[in-house]
Structures are given as C-alpha cells and as structure tokens.
Target: shikimate kinase
Amino acid sequence: MAAMSNPCAPMGARVGGSPLSSGCSSSALRFNVKSAKSVSFSFGEVLGCDGGAPLSIGIKTRVVPWRTLKLQSPAPSSDQHSSSTALRCLGTLGTLLLMPVDAHARGVTMPLGRWSLPFLPCISMGSPAFEHRAGRGNFAHWAPECVSSQNTLKALVDEATGTSTDEKQYSLELQEDEELLKKKAALVVQQLAGSCIFLVGMMGSGKTTVGKHVSEALGYYFFDSDKLVEESRGKTVAEMFRYGREEEFRNAESEVLEQLSSMVRLVVATGGGAVVRPENWSYLRHGITVWLDVPVDSLAERVVAVGCHSRPLLGVQAHDSAYKQALERLTHILQERADFYASADAVVSVEELARKRGQDINSITPTMIAVQVLEEISKMLERGDRDPSLQY
Ligand SMILES: Nc1ncnc2c1ncn2[C@@H]1O[C@H](COP(=O)(O)OP(=O)(O)O)[C@@H](O)[C@H]1O
Ligand SMILES: O=C(O)C1=C[C@@H](OP(=O)(O)O)[C@@H](O)[C@H](O)C1
Model:
C-alpha cells in the first residue's frame, strides 16, 4: 500500500466525528503499530491515523463462531480498491482488529476469542510491508499492546467486551439456524427410519463438529470413529502412525466401522481415510454416507489452527511453513481420494453453500452445514436414489 498516501480522502465518511475528506484525523485515536487488540466500533465512529500514516482495512468478513478465521487484505496493487474496501468496512457495525503491520497480510489464520463478532474488518496501520508480504500466522503470537492518545481506546475495548448490536443480530441469526436445524431434523428423522449417517471427507472437513450438531438435532447418538479406534487400541492415532503402524490403525478402523454398521440411529464421523478401503464401504453402505466437501485451503487453515500433531498423515514439521506443507499434502491426498468421497450417497459442498448464501466460506457455520446435510439426505431419499435393501 505504498502509494496509498491518503486512503481516507476519497471515502467522504466521518471519522471520530470529523469529515475524512480533509485528511486523516489523528486526534480521534492513535494506535501503536505494535498493537494487536480487538475493539468495537460503530459506523464511522473512530478511525484515526497515526501522524498521517494511512490506515488499510481488510475486506469485511463474517466471523464464524469458531476457532479460525481467514482474513483477506485488499488487492496489493490497487489503492482505489483499498479505499473502496475501507468504505465498505466502515459501512458496517463491527469489530476492528488491529494487527501489527509487519507481520501478516493475506490469508491470516487466527484463533478467535472474545472478538467473535459478526463483521470483522481487519485494519492495520499503513505500512508498505503489510500489503505486499504474504504471510500466515497465529494471532496469539502477536504482542497485544494498544496505545491511545485519548481515553477513547479503553471505552472502545470496554464496548468490545460488551454485547454490541451486531452480536445481538448475530446471535439472533444463529438461533434462527438452530431452529431451522431442529425443524429440518424433525422431518428427516421420519424419512431416515433409523438409518445411520456416516460423514465422510478429508481431515478437517468438519465431520466431528458437524456430526455432533446433526446427531443432537436428530436425537441420534454420535460416534467419532478415530476416538473408538483409540479406545480399542489404548493408543492415540498419532502414536499408531508414529510407530509405522498405519496398517494397525486401518485395521482397527475397519473393525470399528463394522461394529457401528450393525447399529441404528447413529451419526458417525469417519476418519478421513476410511473411504479408501473397499471393505469399509460394505459397512458404510448400511447407512447413508454424506461427503463434506470443503475447499482444500480452508482445510489447511483449520488443521494448522488446531495443530497438526493429531493428524500425523500430514507430516507437517516446521511450524513456520505449516500452512504451506499442510496445503500441499492435503491437495495430494484429496486428489487420491476424490473419487472415493464422490461415491457417497449425498454431497454437501461448503463452497456451493457459501455461494448460494452469498457469504464467505469461512462464515458458513457448522449449524448451517448440518442443515444442508439433512437437506441433501432428504432430497436423496425422496429421489429414491438409494437401494432400500441397503438400509439396516
Ligand atoms: N464450519 C466450520 N467453520 C470453521 N471451522 C470449522 C468448521 N467446522 C469445523 N471447523 C473446525 O475445523 C477443525 C476440524 O474440524 P473437525 O470437526 O475435527 O473435522 P474432522 O472431524 O472432519 O477432521 C476444528 O478445529 C473445528 O473447530
Ligand atoms: O485422512 C486420514 O487418512 C486420516 C484422518 C484422521 O481423521 P480425521 O478425518 O477425523 O482428521 C485420522 O483417521 C487419521 O489421522 C488418518
């Protein structure tokens, strides 16, 4: 953003009560560039500049009530774009996340804490480095320190820890999704007639997370096949892989699936590799299989955010390039398995869901995905695609 000398000027919005068109207001609030804090702002309330240094503001993104969030910074070469992005961000209520300028740019993955507010524009104090350096990082590593020239910051932080209008709106939307899930489940549970649901998909696709929502809504039991394998062998998945015992893990996984296949009213999160063994399909076909299809870059962000130690197949070693390693490995694994996943009875494409809802992929919550899982199962059963003799 080197050439963005006065990004505020074209916006004509008000910052701290003063028109921006005359330049950046430094009286409203000054941020220490090293800072990393979350504060809440109302529309056009406060956006100051430190000694005339430009602010850059990331593209507005809907925050998921989940652990990771992808933030994108504006296109590096387009000042115009940055300005109009800034304007759009100002046009929302929300939280502004202040990031150290020299650390990270596009595609930042970070754990979310208290600042899980609906709209999270990402702002940084203008530094050419910020806009032009691609990087990834963990928010927790950034030193939180924020300096205000007035007492404004404290008020803003206080506001951030309270309940904003947006939070209310957001929790309302979450409630609506929960209601929708319950309604959908009440219908689909009849159609299912006790059949189990096996969620398949890549590691990190949300089988466990979404599966719990689906099972709760249906009044089904939930099982994570990895957990059952660990219990049956008295070792973690990572331990089994570490000692070169993938075969032992795969055998245990097949045993677990076989046992589950004779049961009813279950939602099962299968391990990402379960689909590869033909034998496993003979078990999975006792129930309804649903593929959670999540773009590979989102998968990489998620698994890196929670740490790759529990997913030994990724073989991610160095922390500083964890995302890159995970992305490469996941891409490769997906290529090998895509056809297997695609032979599931139903597919939920999170990308497609996001497109239909006009939202960012990272804003699609597990509850929304759970609704879609039931929707796809319902459509599939209505079409009569599935051989009824395969049901339990
Ligand atoms: N819809 C979602 N949006 C954002 N993060 C998600 C979503 N679903 C799951 N996650 C996160 O991704 C990670 C992997 O999810 P998990 O359910 O364990 O996947 P799987 O069981 O398929 O390996 C977890 O940290 C979870 O919180
Ligand atoms: O994709 C795979 O081969 C694996 C996925 C993991 O499960 P999740 O999909 O639950 O991460 C786990 O079974 C094991 O690490 C192998």
Notes: Residues 64, 66-68, 201, 203-209, 269, 302, 306, 364-366, 369 surround adenosine-5'-diphosphate (ligand 1) (CB under 6 Å). The chain has 13 helices and 13 strands.
